[in-house]
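Recall the central idea of this unit: under ordinary conditions, the amino acid sequence of a chain determines the structure it adopts. In this exercise we apply that idea directly, starting from the sequence alone.
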Amino acid sequence: MSDLPEHVVVNRAYWDGMANQWVEMGEGAWRQTTPAWGQWQIPEAEIDMLPDDMSGMHAIDLGCGTGYVSAWMARRGATVTAIDNSAEQLATARRLADTHGVELELIHGNAETVPKPDASYDFAISEYGASIWADPYRWLPEAHRLLKSGGALHFLGNHILVELCSPQDGSLPVTRNLERRYFDVYRQDWRDAIDDPGGIEFNLTFSAWIRLFNETGFEIVDLIEVQAPADAEGTPFAVTAEWSKDFPSEHIWKLRKRA
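Accordingly, the structure predicted from this sequence is:
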C-alpha cells in the first residue's frame, strides 16, 4: 500500500491518464520565445513572473508538467530543477528538452517532499502545478525550506471566486452565483464531477493564504488578480471569457523568503 497522501496518489493517476492531451499545448509553449501565462496567456511584460536575467540562479519548477516554464527559465540563464507528480508528463518534458537542447534536471516526485537540501534555490515557481494540485500546508513550507534567504516564490492558480462559483455537482462552466461556502474552499475533490471529472485540488481563503505565508516565513511582494483581456473569447477550462472580464479567474502570488 502506498504511503503517499491520498491526493498525491489520485492526482498522479489522473495526470498520467490524461498526459497525452497536453502534449500539443506543451510543444507550443516550448516554441514560445516570450513567456505567456495562465488560461488567458497574459504576456510576461504585464505581470513579471520571471526575472529578466537568471544567469547564475538555481531555480525549481514545482509541478512542471511538460516543462515549458522550466525551459523559459533555463533560456534566461538559470540552472533548473523540475519536479512533477506524473511520470507521463515528465516523459514529454524530457523529450522536448532533448529536442530543444535545453538542460533540465527532471525529478518524478511530489512537490510536498522534494529530495533536495535546504536552501538549494534562489527562485521557485509554480503555474498550475503544486499551486493547485498539492496541499498548501505541505508544499509552501517545503518551498520555503528549499529557498535561500531572500529567495523568491511566484505561483499562479485558480482564484477563490472560481471555486466559490463552481456548482456542487461539478457541472461547467462556473456560474455567477455563490455555489459553495467560502470557508469550505480548502479541498475540492472533482472525481465525481458531472463535467470533466478530475483530481483533487486545493485553494485557500485570502486570510488563510496570508496567515500561512506569515507562519511559514514568507513576506508578500505582490498579489495579481488576473482578468481576461478585452478581446478574449471562449471557455478555457471552467471559466468563460465574459465571466473573467467581470471577475478574476486566477491569482498570482509573489513572495520572498524572509532573511
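The mean pLDDT is 97.
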